[in-house]
Design brief:
alpha/beta, globular, 16 helices, 13 strands, 2 domains, Rossmann fold
Amino acid sequence: MTAQATAEETGAPTMAVGGRRRNLFLVANNLEEMGGLQRVAHNLAATFAAAGHNVELIGIMPHPSALSYAPGDTYRTTVLYGQPAPPAWRPRTLRDRLNLRSRRRERHRRRLRRAAVDRLSERFRSVPDGIVICTQAFAMDWVHEADTSHLRVITQSHESYEASRGLTPASRGSARYTRMRRTYRDVDLFLLLTQHDADMFEREGFNNVGVLHNPLTMYPDRRSDLSAKTVINVGRYHEQKNQRALIDAFALVWRRHPDWRLQLVGEGPLQSALREQVDALGLGAAVSVGGPTTEVQARLLASSIFAMSSDFEGLPLVLAEAMACGVPCVSFDCAPGIREIIADGADGLVVPPRDTAALAGAICRLIEDADLRQRMGAAARRNIRRFAPVEILRQWHEVFDLVER
């Protein structure tokens, strides 16, 4: 699925916007990873370009994923590093400090970083004015060091306040909040995905917050007929996504409905561990732990229920994508953004966080009531149109006018 096709599929404007053409830089950690944020970044770049803006999408480092988003010729893409850079060296003992090899590696890392910052500044200086939209706290470290004196800077957070603060089990020890306090407080605008998160950051002294949702990346011409006996989850195999809980829940589902299957689609460090869990539970014939795909839409259209078991989220794009395909969703109530997408009992089901029995019960409810599944799927597809790109683009233009005043 190319970024160009994505913009067209979702009804993005294809004519120049009113007013002057803006120079826009979108900066992300990487451009290749299979994740909602990467789909959002490429989709936004294509949407802005289709609306008449001059757009460049910049990744800090390459990702070792084989997944590729093809941008077509509507916007430029740049990656600052040729290969992933080593982590910073933090000596803990006197012996560490005397390690000459580590010192040389650290000097090399700093040279690479300086060169990356210089290259970013060079890209920014290629235009007389414009707006930088930094999508992640890690990437903002480089934007913060680069020359943005002639540009406006907007930052985003795509996760909840609680996750940024390290207050959920899977986010403990996170350095994101430290980064945000250092680099987000003085930018022109800091955008959150929900009003709850904006309010919480405002209480922490951030006086530049706003709220803007991500746009849909797809709205297919047809919806799933919900006949396939398939529950699907699409996401990184990471502690945050907590597919372990989903596998445990599906073990309970399978006892009642052995003809149904769970399909996991993704990549990440926990892939082997999840496969071992499947084998240990005797679910090898019922649960597949597959690799990444560029055909997210096709996978969703071939499924009947989407299940999310995350420890934390922001405003999860993949729920909106499933709903656009007419697939009803079941999710842990793991962040305020979940209920901004799913209307519990109307177009999907929301259950208490980390309650695997409740998650299994909600999945079984949709399996056992085909009429309910069809009603919720139709309502989901209808209700999620509020995230259509044309509406989100209108809100982005209001944001651009605001920061340029």
